[in-house]
Design goal:
Helices cover about 35% and strands about 15% of the residues. It binds succinic acid.
Length: about 550
């Protein structure tokens, strides 16, 4: 029996925890209450071919095509072949996937060659899955087979003689004001990070407030390898709230059901950009929208949901989006609604193998915090819930076999810190040089999360230039020197975002080509010289907070 510590309670974390209960002593830590992470918000669905091997192979092919040539074929095959079994397991836990007659309803989303996206509650797939997993986890906690610690944030990993031996956690409350003085250690034989992504690096994001990259940053500080950090996905269709504040993600499933994108002249523009038009891969649609927005200067494009059906049809198929858009004052059954891209999903993260093992013994990672390689440079729609459940279960399998030592190094990767950042960057005629004023403006000498988000949005967004990335790198390096040691959870989150932003900008500078979601204006094509993936490690492991040393 091993002591297992799972941090994070989305689909990947709870799956890993439930599948580990039988033979181990399991503790689960979550930053808020159950259901406050990204899984709850997932709309479109979970991609899974239920029809047999031919369909599964096509799913794997579509996933690899979208991955920009660097998706890991073995990891993708494993995920696609195991999908159907996981859907049945989720059904057994009580998830009611929508049906059309006797059959499971199957939606179409961008770059899928076949309708294979299963959904629940119309557009509330994540909420339905999270509710079922929460019930199972709470039942296990009540039965005493798991210890559940809510409202606690990960502070750092404990590393003893090169092995991860648990984690330091601190109480967390909304707003992040709780003190790190209240941190405590949780020792474990194996620690599973399921802490999600870091959408809060950007000023416009579809992610919840808690998406501050805590697990990825703690793993980095502990010396784990991170990979593919330059690949960040921007969801094309986010409806910004007119008064600021959280907006509404408009699922790709809306375009899959017939929704179209229009410019301010009321004309479709995606047909010219790509043969798949509105159903091209997300990176293509996001870039086309930004390019269109530059022509109509800055005004969002419009998503026309009227081809999907009348008000009743829209409310029945997309109840969450229907209600949320109406709350913001829009009636999408009558008029197109304004949309623009927002930061959505990090393909990069903690490098893991087919058993979800990181490069550090005793540390596994699952879900968006991990980089299994299934997405490569770009994720196809609705593969994130699937990756979470498949690799969550694989983590539990590894634990059951005692396989928590580090895997062999991946030969398809190249260490980032050996690569020199290009000294000269070519003139940029796209954005006119530096977007974010950086250190030429004394206002920016002090660090705040809002400034970081603005810098990342303007200089490390859908279109990138060497000049903007270099300026971002200089500013981030300066902030890293001046930022004080954190004393609260909120300050620690800020530090996590800063460290991860710096590492990802460095990776984006090093990748002097365009591939998947990473687009360099001065290098607009895929280059054969960059078919490898960059691994990033800190040369000197450190801790964010010294009081628990
Ligand atoms: C969507 O419904 O468009 C988002 C789902 C995903 O990120 O795959």
């Amino acid at each position: 029996m091993a002591k297992v510590l799972v941090i994070g309670t989305g689909i990947a974390g709870i799956t890993a925890a439930l599948a580990s209960l039988k033979h181990n002593e399991v503790t689960v830590v979550t930053k808020g209450e159950l259901g406050q992470g990204s899984t709850e918000w997932a709309q479109g669905g979970i991609a899974a071919e239920m029809s047999g091997p031919d369909g599964v192979i096509r799913h794997a092919q579509d996933t690899l095509t979208v991955s920009g040539g660097i998706g890991d074929a073995n990891a993708v095959r494993a995920m696609c072949f195991e999908a159907a079994a996981h859907v049945r397991r989720l059904q057994a836990l009580g998830v009611q996937f929508d049906r059309e007659g006797e059959e499971l309803a199957r939606g179409l989303e961008g770059a899928h060659s076949n309708p294979r996206v299963l959904h629940a509650g119309g557009d509330a797939t994540g909420a339905a899955i999270q509710a079922a997993l929460n019930r199972a986890l709470r039942a296990a906690a009540e039965a005493g087979s798991v210890e559940l610690i809510e409202n606690h944030a990960l502070v750092d990993l404990i590393v003893d003689f090169g092995r991860v031996a648990g984690a330091v956690i601190a109480p967390h409350e909304q707003g992040g004001s709780s003190s790190l003085e209240q941190s405590r250690e949780l020792r474990a034989d194996v620690t599973v990070l399921a802490t999600g992504g870091a959408g809060q690096m950007y000023s416009h994001t579809t992610n919840p407030l808690g998406a501050t990259g805590d697990g990825i940053a703690a793993a980095y500080r502990a010396g784990a390898e991170l990979v593919d950090l330059e690949f960040y996905q921007f969801h094309p269709t986010y409806l910004a709230a007119p008064e600021g504040g959280p907006g509404v993600l408009i699922s790709e499933a809306v375009r899959g059901a017939g929704g179209t994108l229009l410019n301010t002249d009321g004309a479709r523009f995606m047909q010219e950009a790509n043969t798949l038009a509105e159903l091209a891969a997300r990176d293509v649609v996001a870039r086309s929208i930004v390019a269109e927005m530059l022509l109509q200067p800055g005004t969002p494009v419009m998503l026309d949901a009227r081809p999907v059906g009348d008000a009743k049809t829209l409310a029945a198929r997309f109840p969450t989006i229907d209600a949320a858009t109406r709350t913001l004052g829009y009636d999408w059954s009558r008029n197109p609604i304004p949309v623009s891209p927002a930061a959505h999903f990090w393909m990069g993260g903690i490098a893991t193998d087919s058993h979800s093992r990181s490069s550090l013994p005793g540390l596994l990672a699952v879900g968006e915090a991990a980089c299994t390689g299934v997405h490569g440079a770009n994720r196809i729609a609705s593969n994130s819930l699937l990756e979470g459940v498949v690799y969550g279960e694989r983590a539990a399998f590894a634990i059951s076999r005692g396989l928590w030592n580090a895997p062999a190094a991946n030969e398809a990767t190249v260490p980032l810190h050996y690569l020199s950042v290009p000294a000269r960057v070519e003139a940029d005629d796209f954005s006119g040089g530096t977007n974010f004023q950086g250190l030429s403006d004394p206002e920016n000498f002090s660090f705040t999360r809002a400034k970081l988000q603005k810098l990342m949005w303007q200089n490390m967004g859908v279109f990138r230039t060497g000049a903007d990335l270099q300026s971002a790198s200089n500013t981030l390096e300066f902030w890293r020197q001046v930022v004080p040691a954190p004393s609260t959870v909120g300050e620690l989150e800020d530090l996590n975002l800063l460290e991860l932003a710096f590492a990802s900008v460095h990776a984006a500078l090093a990748r002097a080509e365009s591939r998947g979601a990473h687009y360099r204006v001065e290098y607009p094509h895929v280059s054969k010289y960059f078919s490898h993936r960059f691994v990033c490690t800190t040369e000197r492991p450190f801790r964010a907070y010294s009081a628990h040393l």
